[in-house]
Amino acid sequence: MTADRGPWLVVGLGNPGAEYAHTRHNAGRLVIEALCARAGARLTSHRSRTHTADVRLGTLPGGAPGPRVVLAQSDSYMNTSGGPVSALARFLGVGADHLLVVHDDLDLPAHDLRLKRGGGEGGHRGLLSISQALGTRDYHRLRVGIGRPPGRQDPADFVLAPLSQRDRPDWEVTFEQAADVVEDVVAHGFTQAQQTLHSR
């Protein structure tokens, strides 16, 4: 896979609506918002039941502008993300090799970032929906660690609880770091970006 093929489709998972806007489960959507802010872009409604922004991200070797990237959030809830994501991918002509899904991950410590291609979904219903709709698991994921709930708190309550005002500055740093990783993937290729991230 080469970095200059395109476009890339980068999807941030989460739930629509103000009540979910600043929850751990919306980590993927919050990374998309950070990328939009960098690019000076605004998400607009698309007929695939998504909101999208068509931008260029990163810098290619030699200083040329990075490749075309479509940033997206689904208008559906997390557990039914697959339909809108697969519809948008078909509309854009994007295959699994140029799809990057950004999502929260309970199995990683809070603020840890990891890149992964293919494999299982770890019980993440948003990923399960996408895999089923695409008919493949062989797409790229950026996992944003949110950690496990404290004590005996229900994981569902934990992921849907709003981030505290005290914790939000640290999470904003994490979302910016995740945006850096996305730029690295689209500009330099998944393998190089993965090596760079995982060697830190």
Automatic annotation (TrEMBL):
Binding sites annotated in the UniProt record for tRNA = Y20, Y77, N79
Tell me yes or no: is Acetylation among this UniProt entry's keywords.
no
Q: What is its main location?
A: cytoplasm
Q: Which reaction does it catalyse?
A: an N-acyl-L-alpha-aminoacyl-tRNA + H2O = an N-acyl-L-amino acid + a tRNA + H(+)
Q: Which domain of life is it from?
A: Bacteria
Site positions (Stabilizes the basic form of H active site to accept a proton) are: D104
Kindly list the GO molecular function terms attached to this UniProt entry: peptidyl-tRNA hydrolase activity
Q: Where in the cell is it found?
A: Cytoplasm
Q: What class of enzyme is it?
A: hydrolase
* Annotated site (Discriminates between blocked and unblocked aminoacyl-tRNA): N15
Q: Return the EC number.
A: 3.1.1.29
Active site (catalytic residues)? H25
Q: Which UniProt keywords apply?
A: Cytoplasm, Hydrolase, RNA-binding, tRNA-binding
Q: Which family does it belong to?
A: Belongs to the PTH family.
Q: What does this protein do?
A: Catalyzes the release of premature peptidyl moieties from peptidyl-tRNA molecules trapped in stalled 50S ribosomal subunits, and thus maintains levels of free tRNAs and 50S ribosomes. Hydrolyzes ribosome-free peptidyl-tRNAs (with 1 or more amino acids incorporated), which drop off the ribosome during protein synthesis, or as a result of ribosome stalling.
Could you describe the subunit structure of this protein? Monomer.
Q: What is this protein called?
A: Peptidyl-tRNA hydrolase
Q: Which organism is it from?
A: Schaalia naturae
In the UniProt record, the gene name given for this protein reads: pth
